Amino acid sequence: MARLDRLLANLGYGSRREVADLVRHRQVVLDGAELRDAGARIAVTADLPSRMTVVGQPMDPPAPLTVLMHKPLGVVCSHREEGRSVYELLPRRWRARMPALSTIGRLDKDTSGLLLITDDGPFLHRVISPKAKVAKSYVATLDRPLEGSEAEVFAAGTLVLEGERDALAPAVLEPMGPTRARLIITEGRYHQVRRMFAAVGNHVTALHRERIGGLDLPGEMEPGAWRALTVEEQAAVFA
After folding, report:
1. Residue 187: pLDDT band with limits 50, 70, 90
2. Would you call 27 helix, strand, or coil by DSSP?
3. Using CA atoms, how far apart are residues 11 and 13, in angstroms rounded to an integer?
4. How many CB atoms sit inside 10 A of residue 117's CB?
């Protein structure tokens, strides 16, 4: 159970006073009935967004929430980086949600593809934990043709990136053409895929993440589109 004003304030609809004003103006409706008491206690169930409207629109999903996004090129994954961020692709009020939304790992400005954004701390840490070894699959377009030895180098578990001391975990390279390849890694080091190809004398000209664990980016999802992750999809990450 949660107080109505606290619930909606935590979802970014405004301060508790502003939420009380919404209630007073009969802008919050539950099961077809206008709510009159901002202090009323509401059962926060999975179906609540389908039963409650705020200013005529379905209530936003309550926490814990995980969003699946097709990150487009040209946007960043941090509030602190310059440029447009992935958070600007979400409803503006979501920037005031408590707990705050965070990306699960990052994709750089010039990388597109599957991105998860969540306010579920335990889920976030489980995905990024080195112990979980959640695989991430990328498709890279390269500046020069593959030489044929890259798969063996990446699979050996002995490759050390420039500026680092520890070797990378073994990774799987699947050639998809002379200058195109799929790379599957279980770590998330800074610009790892780009740096791996640089270590074998090549340069990544385009990079796209297509899968996290057993979760694929839906083929019909356009760049910039997003939706809430289902319970089944969340489990698929660890499949």
Report:
1. very high
2. coil
3. 6
4. 23
Partnered with residue 69 across adjacent β-strands are 115, 226
Q: Which tokens in the block code for residue 198? A: 């640089």
Q: Compute the distance between CA of residue 34 and CA of residue 36 in angstroms, rounded to an integer.
A: 6
Query: What is the Cβ-side half-sphere exposure of residue 47, based on CA atoms within 13 angstroms?
Result: 3
Nearest by Cα to 159 from 201, 206, 127, 106 = 201
- Residue 11 corresponds to which amino acid? L
Q: How confident is the model at residue 90 (pLDDT cuts 50, 70, 90)?
A: very high
Phi and psi angles of residue 94, each rounded to the nearest 5 degrees, phi first: -65, -20
What is the DSSP-derived secondary structure letter of residue 15? -
Q: Report yes or no on whether pTM surpasses 0.85.
A: yes
What are 188-192's contacts with CB under 8 Å, separation 24+?
Answer: 188/105, 188/128, 188/136, 189/161, 189/164, 191/108, 192/161, 192/168
Q: Helix, strand or coil for residue 102?
A: strand
Nearest-angstrom CA–CA distance, 199 and 40? 60
Whether the ω angle into residue 64 lies within 30 degrees of 0, i.e. cis, is: yes
Q: Which domains does the chain have, with CATH numbers?
A: 2-58 (3.10.290.10), 66-129+214-236 (3.30.70.580), 136-212 (3.30.70.1560)
Residue 33 is which amino acid?
A
User: Catalytic amino acids?
Assistant: 108
Q: Decide if 128 contacts 188 (C-beta within 8 A).
A: yes
Q: Please tell me the distance from the alpha carbon of residue 42 to that of residue 5, in angstroms, as a whole number.
A: 10
The span from the CA of 211 to the CA of 70, in Å, is 11
- Looking up tokens 């935590």 gives 10
